[in-house]
């Protein structure tokens, strides 16, 4: 007897990629989220657009002639110097442990664990605020309004992130969303029942 073919998982695969496409061709820029080159200054060579994130990035050259990309805060320009270390000036672009940053300072590029690299506050125009110290922890107010206790030896960068007006941009036409890799979303109730694969109760 002929064996019964196993049901294909193609339907679920189709749903997973239903509203996504490759979009325009892009090259990924390796961003330094650790800022672990301490006690050495770097000069900003240029500020660039990054297709993989909403904030701008900047190319910096360290004193030892190595170069890397880091997130660009608002208020910096080409030729400025930024540093990572201890007991630095409180100015945009400098990276310090949050236990040394005074209360009321705006920060971004915030670590959740020491040395793990920044995980919080990385999108355009975002910032968190240092609220105070509590023993080994620092109270940080995020842009969502949530206040979190984060270990004081975690690192963050001073200032608000660049491209503050990103939230006001108008897409303008459907084609621009296609360039960004976003395909049209069709309501499940408008589909042929054999093509309806969404597990979402919204559809």
Which key terms come to mind for this protein?
203 residues; mainly beta; six-stranded antiparallel beta sheet; four-stranded antiparallel beta sheet; 26% strand; globular
Question: Can you tell me about this structure?
Answer:
The mean pLDDT is 89. The chain is globular and about 65 Å long. The protein has helices at residues 10-16, 174-179; strands spanning 42-48, 57-62, 67-71, 81-82, 95-97, 106-108, 110-111, 118-120, 128-134, 137-141, 147-151, 155-158. A hairpin with a 4-residue loop joins strand 2 (57-62) and strand 3 (67-71). It is mainly beta and 203 residues long. The longest helix is centred in the N-terminal third of the chain and has 7 residues, at 10-16. The strands form three sheets. Strands 5-12-6-9-10-11 form a six-stranded antiparallel sheet, with no helix packed on it.
Q: How would you summarize this macromolecular structure in one to three sentences?
A:
By secondary structure, the protein is mainly beta. The chain has helices spanning 10-16, 174-179, and strands spanning 42-48, 57-62, 67-71, 81-82, 95-97, 106-108, 110-111, 118-120, 128-134, 137-141, 147-151, 155-158.
């Amino acid at each position: 007897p002929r064996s019964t073919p196993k049901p294909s998982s193609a339907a679920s695969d189709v749903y997973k990629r239903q509203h996504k496409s490759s979009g325009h061709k892009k090259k990924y820029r390796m961003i330094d989220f650790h800022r672990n080159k301490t006690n050495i200054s770097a000069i900003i060579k240029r500020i660039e657009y990054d297709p993989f994130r909403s904030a701008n990035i900047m190319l910096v050259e360290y004193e030892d002639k190595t170069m890397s990309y880091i997130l660009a805060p608002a208020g910096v320009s080409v030729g400025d110097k930024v540093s990572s270390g201890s007991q630095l000036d409180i100015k945009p672009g400098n990276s310090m442990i949050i236990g040394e940053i005074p209360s009321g300072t705006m920060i971004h590029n915030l670590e959740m664990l020491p040395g793990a690299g920044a995980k919080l506050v990385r999108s355009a125009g975002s910032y968190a605020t240092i609220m105070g110290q509590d023993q080994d922890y620092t109270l940080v107010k995020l842009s969502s309004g949530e206040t979190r206790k984060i270990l004081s030896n975690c690192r963050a960068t001073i200032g608000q992130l660049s491209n503050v007006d990103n939230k006001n941009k108008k897409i303008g036409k459907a084609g621009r969303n296609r360039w960004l890799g976003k395909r049209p979303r069709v309501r499940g109730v408008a589909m042929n029942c054999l093509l309806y694969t969404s597990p979402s109760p919204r559809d």
